[in-house]
Predict the structure of Conserved hypothetical membrane protein.
Amino acid sequence: MLWVWWLQSHTLIQQQVKSLLYLIAQAQQIHLNQEYSRFAKIKITKTTRCHKEVNWQISDHQVFLPFWPLKLRYNIYLISFLALFIALKIVLGIFVVRIGPTISLGISWVGLALIGWIFGPVVAIPIEFLTDTLSLFLGGGGVWYWLYAVQEPMIIFTAALFGSIYRIRKNYASNFWDFVFQQILIVGFCISGFIFLSLYNNADTDRFLVRNNSFGTTLSMIFMALFFVFAELISWLLYLKHRKTKESIKLFLYVSTMMITLSILYSLVLGTISINEFLINVVHQKPKTRDFILSAYLIPRVIKETLRLAILIICVIALIKISEPYLQNFFNLSRLRW
């Protein structure tokens, strides 16, 4: 009888222990679920707050200082990237193809555009003066002229403005208004550039672009029209291809607009005026005829910009896509974001 009683008691104890263990396991599972839910809510809250904070910083602080409040001189990582872009600009500035006495074919603007686009105008413009000085010495020197000296800082500043606009607009889903903005700028700068060249007046080359019955004027207008058509063709083809998809093409839209703007303002307009003023005021060499300015300066520049435009756009977009993830990751880590 004792044996039977002990066996029954032992079995009852085992059942009670199993029930207790089952209740403990259930309690632990409930506790884990509660902890996981609380952690998930905290994570979602942090992510939402972080997202709002990032949007606020982009719209308020990162227009001119993309890496604010980080200081460039205290960040080896940023300095390394900046040194890489400076070296790229200097090297690409050395390896150019000379086309005649006044035209050179190269892609050194890639380095300039990257410095302005990524680092913003506050940091990039002072760095550009240093870069321009290094390029002058490493390139074998040359004659300093103020119209040439101001071009690269202005290129940097223009690229920085487009980079800032892109950072503000890149989180928006629609591409339509960005495309409209691109078309307004392209058409506006083409028209204003032509008007500015037409109004440009020098005592030795009195309004060389708008002379009546000039073959050079007609040919210049034809080539500038071809440049405009080529730029518009690139923009419209890509927009129509991705119009019905949700894929963002803002990087292409703003980089292509930036490079077209740089080509019009600083190569076709300012570049043509600069070489004419340089030869007259520094070299003291007057052009043989007014059409000589068009055939020797303007038309070759239009052809050059048409040929290298697509190359510049592709190179800048590729290098931005390579660089931005690393820079953004470094920025997030430094601000304790994940």
